[in-house]
């Protein structure tokens, strides 16, 4: 029998603490021994090149993809018993948008855990779903078929489904991929509202130029964890070069790591 | 009237029940783009039945269903193996596995055929709806006569209980099924167990296919898993409405197909009838064709395919 390991306080208070997480496909590690303790109440970006294992890290943490080794805890307890506190917004492209469902049907899917199989009456569910839709400015589309929405509208519906879950931690996989500028700012407003309520956000993000504006913490990932911490401290030229394997130019880097020089442009 | 009771009531009821049961499951197969699994499982029932006959030496229903069940299981495992080690997509794996196993079944059948037992490929394909005769069904009174009811062909009760089991399964697991079909990653994140529900769905498909196989043959099963649901998808963008349409299409093709097969050739001046199962399957295909041509939702937005 293993003795119960003492859980550090940082892990106990973190909505998602990942320790030694390794995932491999076909014996090739795509995520290798990553440790990351999400600071509570933070807005954290996961940044790294294509194939760095950003989505895989999230999916393995959420039990969607099998992990080889590793420990994932939510407020110090195993994820499996605490998953109710976590909302997940998958990549928009992972879903069959041709599915015969309306916008409100999709948002109500976020209530899955509260619904019992014998309950058909959905008056309360509908009210909650309309409330979530209103927060993302989509209430006028409630009865629209999901396939008729634009990419940005689909992403807002996904966000509304996460809002209805009322979770401490919301995990988003590239929420700004393929959406228009108006949607991007609408989504970031909602995410900041959530953070101001004291909730935590963890977000795969690929636009390096907005990391400073949107996030307060960052995890730099390229199969292994390269660096993690406050954006001001960790989002440095040296760390970015290490993450992207030296593929970023000096000019790019200078703009990225110093918001002042970006505004001076 | 007594003719109808004796010769047509049971075949019609069995065809309608089985058609609607398969159509119900078919809705989810079509939405998951898994239609071929119904095809695969109903084909491999043949080798399963032949092997069970070779082992037991008798044509008992129980042994046949067991054989078909085991072979469905073997098929699902083989498909997964071919997909993983052959590195092909799952529909290609299904195609390879079920055609090979069906061919093996035909070979086994011919090889033992010399023993002269009534078990042939035709029976496996078309079933034998017309043979479900209710000898005690001599008039309306028989419907309330326990003794006459006891003489009903056992296929009717079997079809009805499988139908009931499918309805119970779909009502209880509807949310998990919908979630797992639309967004499997999210389903896993809220512990809706998409993999388990997937397995249950395939199991129900196997149960329905095997129960239907004996009574109506595999042609109806294959057609009913795909055609009514695929046609219904072209009629509406709401899942509940789609399911209602699919049930209607299944019932209409079953009743109309049975009537046309029995009397259609006569109306055309031929003194004959054609296979009811064949006609039912054909009609379901015609309905799908009509839905493709005139269904209101056949031009769906392309938003789904971007990204």
TrEMBL record, chain A:
Keywords: ATP-binding, Nucleotide-binding, Transport. One of its GO terms (molecular function) is ATP binding. Residues 16-248 form the ABC transporter domain. InterPro entries: AAA+_ATPase, ABC_transporter-like_ATP-bd, ABC_transporter-like_CS, Metal_Ion_Import_ABC, P-loop_NTPase. PANTHER family: IRON TRANSPORT SYSTEM ATP-BINDING PROTEIN HI_0361-RELATED, METAL TRANSPORT SYSTEM ATP-BINDING PROTEIN TM_0124-RELATED. Belongs to the ABC transporter superfamily. This is Manganese ABC transporter ATP-binding protein. It comes from Halomonas urumqiensis.
From TrEMBL, chain B:
SUPFAM superfamilies: ABC transporter involved in vitamin B12 uptake, BtuC. It is a multi-pass membrane protein. GO terms for biological process: response to zinc ion; transmembrane transport. The chain crosses the membrane at residues 6-29, 61-79, 91-109, 195-213, 243-264, 276-295. It is found in: Cell membrane. One of its GO terms (cellular component) is ATP-binding cassette (ABC) transporter complex. It holds the Pfam family ABC-3. Keywords: Cell membrane, Membrane, Transmembrane, Transmembrane helix, Transport. Its main location: membrane. InterPro entries: ABC_BtuC-like, ABC_TroCD. Belongs to the ABC-3 integral membrane protein family. This is Zinc ABC transporter permease. It comes from Halomonas urumqiensis. The lineage of its organism: Bacteria, Pseudomonadati, Pseudomonadota, Gammaproteobacteria, Oceanospirillales.
């Amino acid at each position: 029998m293993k003795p119960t390991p003492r859980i550090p306080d940082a892990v106990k208070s973190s909505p998602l603490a990942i320790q030694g997480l390794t995932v491999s496909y076909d014996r090739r590690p795509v995520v290798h021994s990553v440790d990351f303790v999400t600071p509570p109440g933070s807005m954290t970006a996961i940044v790294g090149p294509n194939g760095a294992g950003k989505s895989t890290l999230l999916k393995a943490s959420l039990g969607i993809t099998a992990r080889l080794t590793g420990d994932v805890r939510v407020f110090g307890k195993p994820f499996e018993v605490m998953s109710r506190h976590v909302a997940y917004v998958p990549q928009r492209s992972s879903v069959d948008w041709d599915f015969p469902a309306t916008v409100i049907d999709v948002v109500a899917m976020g209530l899955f855990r509260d619904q019992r199989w014998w309950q058909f009456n959905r008056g309360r569910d509908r009210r909650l779903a309309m409330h979530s839709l209103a927060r993302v400015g989509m209430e006028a589309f409630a009865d629209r078929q999901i396939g008729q929405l634009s990419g940005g509208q689909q992403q807002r519906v996904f966000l509304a489904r996460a809002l209805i879950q009322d979770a401490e931690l919301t995990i988003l996989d590239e929420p700004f991929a393929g959406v228009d500028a108006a949607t991007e700012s609408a989504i970031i407003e909602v995410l900041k509202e959530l953070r101001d309520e004291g909730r935590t956000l963890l977000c795969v993000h690929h636009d390096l130029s907005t990391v400073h504006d949107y996030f307060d913490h960052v995890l730099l990932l390229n199969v292994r964890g390269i660096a993690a911490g406050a954006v001001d401290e960790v989002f440095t030229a040296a760390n970015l070069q290490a993450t992207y394997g030296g593929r970023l130019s000096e000019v790019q880097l200078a703009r990225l790591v110093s918001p002042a020089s970006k505004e001076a442009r | 009237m007594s003719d109808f009771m004796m010769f047509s009531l049971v075949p019609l009821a069995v065809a309608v029940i089985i058609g609607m049961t398969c159509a119900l499951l078919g809705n989810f197969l079509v939405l998951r783009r898994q239609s071929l699994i119904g095809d695969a499982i109903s084909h491999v029932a043949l080798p399963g039945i032949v092997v069970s006959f070779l082992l037991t030496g008798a044509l008992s229903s129980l042994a046949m269903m067991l054989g078909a069940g085991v072979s469905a299981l073997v098929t699902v495992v083989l498909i997964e193996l071919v997909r993983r080690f052959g590195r092909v997509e799952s529909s290609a794996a299904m195609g390879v596995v079920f055609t090979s196993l069906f061919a093996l079944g035909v070979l086994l059948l011919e090889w033992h055929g010399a023993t002269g037992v009534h078990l042939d490929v035709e029976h496996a394909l078309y079933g034998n709806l017309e043979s479900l005769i209710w000898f005690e069904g001599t008039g309306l009174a028989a419907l309330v006569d326990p003794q006459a009811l006891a003489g009903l062909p056992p296929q009717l009760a079997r079809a009805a209980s499988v139908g009931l089991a499918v309805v119970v399964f779909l009502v209880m697991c509807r949310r998990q099924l919908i979630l797992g079909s639309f967004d499997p990653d999210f389903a896993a994140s809220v512990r809706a167990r998409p993999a388990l529900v997937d397995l249950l769905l395939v199991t129900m498909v196997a149960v329905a296919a095997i129960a239907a196989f004996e009574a109506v043959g595999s042609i109806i099963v294959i057609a009913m898993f795909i055609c009514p649901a695929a046609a219904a998808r072209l009629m509406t963008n709401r899942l509940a409405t789609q399911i209602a349409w699919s049930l209607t299409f299944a019932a209409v093709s079953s009743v109309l197909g049975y009537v046309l097969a029995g009397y259609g050739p006569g109306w055309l001046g031929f003194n004959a009838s054609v296979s009811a199962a064949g006609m039912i399957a054909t009609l379901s295909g015609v309905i799908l064709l009509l839905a493709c041509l005139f269904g209101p939702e056949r031009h769906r937005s392309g938003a789904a395919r971007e990204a």
